[in-house]
Structure formats: C-alpha cells, structure tokens
Specification:
single chain; alpha+beta; six-stranded antiparallel beta barrel; two-stranded antiparallel ribbon; 8 strands; globular; membrane; Major facilitator superfamily (MFS) profile domain-containing protein
C-alpha cells in the first residue's frame, strides 16, 4: 500500500501548513500590533488573527460542489497557490490592510485543505488503512504547529523579531505543497469514475495499490455511482458452481438455490439461501448482541455493529462475518471481481459474448425481516456494456468457467473490494441485483460436516458435497446494470468501449434522501460537538503570546504528537466509535478536575498539579478521539454523488462553530468564570458521549460504497417502523 500512503502524506502537507500558520500568527501578532500601533485597537488585532477563519469559512461554502465538478486535485492545487500567495503577501505587507488581504488568501488555502484532504484520502485509501491515513492530517497539523513554535520561540529571543519573516517563511513549505499537488498527486479514482473516465481511474488505482489487478475496486467504484434501491439482508451457504452444493452441475431452481456471478469471465457460484431464525436474522432485527434492548438505540448503529460483532458463533467460532483483515472465502486470483482476463489482453480488443444459462431464482424466504424490499419501479440505469472500459476482458457473464472458493490464490492477485468484502451479482426478473458479501469466520468442511451459527446446525448432506462457507449479503438494485442487460435471457454485454459519460452530481434535493439525510445528521452534529473548547482551555489558564507561553505551547504540542500516533495505530483496529466512547469520559473527568481546582481552596502546588494534569490529559485524549474522528467519519459516510456537497455542509458547520466558540470565549469567561466554562464543556462532552453511543455507527474496514449502502438500509428500517 506504499502508493496510497505516499499520496496521503503528500496531500496532508496542506494540513501541515495550517498548523504552521495557526502557531505563527499567535507569536507574530505581538510584534504586528507594536509596529502598526494597534494596542488601543483590539478589534483590528482580533481581525488580523481571525481573517483566516473568515477566508476558510467563505471558501468552504462552495469548495465541495466545485470539487465535484472540477475534481479534487485541482482544488488542492488551488489550496497550495492560496497558501503561497498569502505567505508572499504577508512577507511584503506594507500596511495592515494588505496584511488582512494576505490573511484572507491564507484562509482560502486553509479552508480548501481542511475540507478536501480528508475527502481525498478517503477516496484513495484502501479501506483496511483508511482510518490510519485519515489521521495523518491531525498528525501533520500538529507537526506544523511544533516546528512553527520552535521557529517563533527562537525568533522571539531576538532584540527585534521580524514578524514578516515569521509569516513569510510559510512560502517555503507552500512551494513544496504546490510541487507535490502538480507533479505527484493523482486525481481521485472515484471522481474519475463519476465522470466516465474509467481508463484513467484504473491507472490511478493500479498506482495506488501497487498491482495490476484492481478489477474488484473498479467494479465497486462503478456501483458507487448510485445508492441501491430496495435493500435487503440475505444469508447464504455459498459453494463453487462446478460441483454445486449438492454435487454435480446444479440444476435450475433445485432446493431454492441462486446463482451468484462474478465479473471475471464465466466465474459463478451457487448460493443456498438460509431460511428460518438464523443468527443474522436475529441480529439484523435486534442489532448487535451488545446493543439489544437499549432504549433510543438507532437501528443503523446496531446494523453496523452486527458486521463487527466478534462474540457470535459462526462455523466454528470467531467473528460472525469473519476477519476484517481480508477475504476468507474468495481466493486472490480467483476473485469474483477479476474482470481482467489476463495480462495478454490488449486494450480495445473486442471479445465475443458467450452464452450462459442464468439458472437460479430469488427466494423470498431468505430475506431478513429487518429489511423487506420496497415496491417501486426500477430506475433505468446505463447497461453494463456502456460502463465497462476496453481492456476489461469479456463479459462478466460469459463462459462456464467456475472457480473453487478456497483455491489458493497467488500473491498479488485480486483481493475483492477491501475489508473482507466481495461484490457479486445475481439475476432478478428484469435485470440484476448487486450483492455485497461478507463471509463466515471459518470455512465449512466437506460432506457430513455441520454448519452452526447460521440457521442453526445444518448437515452438509442436505446441500451436498463441495467446499462451502456461510455468508451474509446486503442486496440491492445495481447501479450499472438494467433489465436490458438480460434481454432474451442472455447477457448482452460485450467488449465495447463505454461512452465517456458523466454521472449527475448531487443537488440540494438529494440531501433529503433517507440514507444521505441520516448520514448528514451524524456528520453535522459531530462537527458541532467537536468544538470542545481546547482554545478556551488554554486561554483561560492564562497562556499568552510571549516567549514563556510559546514555550509552554511547544511543550503541549510535543505531548500531542505521540497521542496522535497512538490514535493512528488503533484507528483501524479498535474503530472510530470505540475510540470516542472510551476517550470522551476521560475528557469529562479532566474538565471536572479543572472545575475542582478552580472552586476548592488548596495550595499553589496542588492546584498547579491538578490544573496542568487536567490540561495535558484533556488535550491528549482530545487529539486521539474527538479532535480527528469527526473529520474521518464525515469523509466516509456519504455516497460518491453527494460526498462533496455533504462535506461542504459539515465543514461549514465546523468553521461556524469555530468562530462562535472563539468569539464567545471572553463573554463566557467574564460572566461564568473558569469553573462555569469548564462545567459547560463537561456537560457538552457527556451529551457527546450519549450521541455517539446512540447514533454514530462503526465504519472501520468497510468500503465507502458499502457504508453508503448500510445507511440506505438503516433508513429503510426507519421507514418500516414509521
């Protein structure tokens, strides 16, 4: 994954510049107000500092929609240009008004990077390490603060520090950021797919993943063009089609079997629907076992939780759906999604269609009561032939070749769509359905074995010989195939080159789609709760912008860096939700410790120990959890078509709350005092914990498109309940 890691590091240089700027202006403003005689003009002094907030807020209002039109990379290039221009103008700044203009330009760069870098990383990173890479903006931002504090502290020891040099030095890393965005950063493959530029998207994915076989992710990105309709949760016992679940070539409709098709030529599997009171059925109706019978628990949280549940039996123990680290039931080189027929194929080479018998049917018994399909007309999407680029090989339905589920894969082969998930298709009257699969924790054995945990114990004699595995499936209408694909009962997909057609971007009306609306509520509220008062915490303890306070700030930054590194290490292991649920209570304790030290009479030494300890603990836990995770989640939970617009709304919420908290600080401190302010933030943190526990799902290891599908499925649950 070296390619994805290097790209993420290069993109987060913009956040490094943000941290650098925030720290530099805190030290430089002392000397700015001396030169321009602003000691008696606190409004102008505050405006110099806050102008970057104004610029960031202003440009955020349209950054996402513009990025949806022109791409993520051009907007990051624009961010680097704004940083460079702002720093050069600050280096010149003959008067305070030019300085305000420079700060505004600098704010434009900050707003673009803060908004788009998490989005860009989420769209380029593998799902297994997406959380780790999306912690980099916080880490490099703190690193920028650290280096800037060192520079400002050293310069503050001089007799006449030059504030223009302090601010203008930003031009050097800004120039590096510009070079990286122009010469190194690729465009987001998801954005390229949304614009019909599939060949470019494939090349970018190959570079990011360091392998040629990226067929699985290409299929996933195509499906990400639309959130599926009529979602349902189903369960299967899956076996290879060459000997079926009952031995021999599976006959049509026997034992209610359905056929699952992969994107590789002729690859297919036979799936036996599981009926009755299965474990998944219980979980999908009632949620994760750990969250049963909890009042006000959002069904969406329990639905996501069932994927990550680790204490349920499944074919021999372990996670109900298997390890999140990789696929256990589809081999590397025999991936269902390997659309490339081999290295010898040339792009543009046309291949004929092979006849294929679409045996199998949809069994209504295998649908969980949680998500019953809703009635409605099928949306006519573009056919698969119009979306499959040249060089992707022949039809994903051609031929009769089948592959063993547990065949040993060769190193470097396909690995599904990430996080142990696979994408398949199945026939439905009038068209196809897409199936997101997550496999059992352990492979089943041969004839005579027992399968437990799904549908109770099942004798393999009932389904026949052959390798098999239990799997859960999220099934919905495909975004790339329609009923026209199966005209006459045969696939009409060839090796034709697709038209370079763009998908429609999201409009304001799309924000009211049930799944998007629920995701937007989660993202906006998290951004509001994220403003937990770190700036007030430091300012209220008397830290000011002189050499001593800069040194203290430098020390606090040193403490933050290892905490962020710990967060990076566990982000994709413990998960976003778990980290917040464990760190927020520590924030509450730290805040009330500060309240205690403010209202209780004690000696100077004990008060200093409690105050310093409370600040250090608070900042350490904040940067591990609430300081970074809201931005990660906001970049994960929205569908491709609406991601830019929704990210803009969430980022705008953050900037507005930042301004509100910054300018309400003096009023709060004057009217309520330290104890009152810390009490308010302590109560706010407790409310944050309740919201996270009840409303925020766990997204670790899940492909972005699967997350969007789950949000749509959760909205379907509420529709049925209401």
């Amino acid at each position: 994954m070296r390619g994805a890691v290097l790209v993420a590091i290069a993109a987060t240089v913009g956040n490094f510049l943000q941290g650098w700027d925030n720290s530099t202006i805190a030290g430089a403003v002392i000397y700015i107000k001396r030169e321009f005689n602003l000691e008696s003009q606190p409004t102008m002094e505050g405006l110099i500092v806050a102008m970057s907030l104004v610029g960031g807020t202003a440009i955020t209002t349209f950054s996402g929609p513009v990025a949806d039109v022109f791409g993520r990379r051009p907007m990051l290039i624009l961010s680097s240009i704004c940083y460079l221009a702002g720093s050069l103008v600050m280096l010149w700044s003959p008067n305070v008004y030019i300085l305000l203009l420079a700060r505004l330009l600098d704010g434009f760069g900050i707003g673009l990077s803060v908004t788009l870098v998490p989005l860009y990383i989420s769209e380029t990173a593998p799902s297994e390490i997406r959380g780790t890479l999306n912690t980099l903006p916080q880490f490099l931002g703190s690193g920028g603060m650290f280096m800037s504090y060192i520079m400002v502290f050293v310069m503050s020891l001089q007799d006449s520090p030059n504030w223009r040099v302090m601010l203008g030095v930003l031009a050097i890393p800004s120039l590096s950021f510009l070079a990286l965005t122009v010469l190194f950063l690729p465009e987001s493959p998801r954005w390229l797919v949304s614009k019909g530029r599939l060949d470019e998207a494939k090349l970018v994915l190959q570079r990011l993943r360091g392998r040629d076989d990226v067929a699985g992710e290409m299929a996933l990105l195509l499906e990400g063009l639309g959130v599926g309709k009529d979602p349902s949760i189903e369960e299967y016992i899956i076996g290879p089609a060459n000997d079926g679940l009952h031995g021999g070539e599976p006959p049509v409709d026997k034992m209610g079997e359905v056929r699952l098709y992969g994107a590789e030529e002729g690859v297919s599997w036979v799936a036996k629907p599981v009926t009755g009171q299965s474990t998944l059925g219980i979980v999908s109706r009632q949620g994760s076992m750990a969250n049963q019978n909890i009042p006000l628990m959002d069904p969406l949280v329990t639905l996501f939780g069932s994927v990550h549940e680790s204490n349920l039996p499944a074919g021999g123990g372990g996670s109900m759906f298997g390890s999140m680290r990789g696929s256990m039931f589809f081999p590397s080189t025999s991936s269902m999604l390997n659309m490339i027929t081999g290295p010898g194929n040339n792009q543009g080479e046309e291949e004929g269609n092979a006849d294929h018998d679409y045996s199998g049917n949809d069994s209504e018994d295998n649908k969980s009561p949680l998500l019953q399909p809703r009635q409605g007309s099928d949306k006519d999407y573009a056919t698969a032939s119009s979306l499959r680029p040249s060089g992707y090989g022949s039809s994903m339905f051609g031929g009769q070749r089948n592959s063993s589920i547990f065949a040993a894969g060769e190193e470097g082969g396909g690995v599904g769509i990430g996080g142990g998930w696979q994408l398949a298709y199945k026939k439905k009257e009038g068209g196809l359905q897409r199936v997101y699969l997550h496999g059992g924790a352990a492979a089943g054995s041969r004839r005579g074995s027992m399968v437990s945990g799904i549908g109770g114990a099942m004798d393999v004699e009932e389904i026949g010989a052959g390798e098999f595995v239990p799997a859960a499936a999220l099934v919905s209408q495909t975004a790339v195939c329609s009923k026209d694909v199966l005209a006459g009962g045969k696939p009409q997909i060839g090796g034709r080159r697709p038209p370079q057609k763009e998908s429609k971007g999201a409009g304001c009306s799309d924000l009211f789609e049930p799944g998007i609306k629920r995701a937007l509520v989660v993202g906006v509220v998290l951004q509001i709760l994220q403003e937990a008062g770190v700036s007030i915490l430091l300012a209220s303890l008397g830290l000011r912008s002189d050499s001593a306070s800069i040194l203290i700030s430098l020390f606090s930054t040193i403490i933050m860096l290892p905490c962020i590194m710990i967060s990076m290490r566990i982000m994709d292991v413990a998960g976003r939700r778990s980290i917040m649920l464990y760190t927020i209570p520590i924030l509450v304790v730290a805040l009330f410790a500060l309240v205690f030290s403010s209202i209780v009479s004690m000696g100077a030494v004990p008060r200093a120990i409690i105050s310093t300890g409370g600040v250090v603990v608070y900042m350490s836990c904040f940067v591990m959890g609430f300081g970074v995770i809201p931005n990660i989640l906001c970049a994960e939970i929205f569908p491709t078509a609406a991601r830019g617009l929704c990210i803009t709304i969430c980022a705008l919420t953050y900037w507005i709350m930042n301004i509100v908290v910054t300018y309400s600080s003096p009023l709060l401190l004057n009217s309520l005092g330290l104890a009152g302010v810390f009490t308010i933030f302590g109560i706010g943190c407790m409310l944050s914990w309740v919201f996270v526990f009840l409303k925020v799902p766990e997204t670790k290891g899940m492909p972005l498109e699967v997350i969007s599908e789950f949000f749509a499925a959760g909205a379907s649950v509420l529709d049925r309940q209401n």
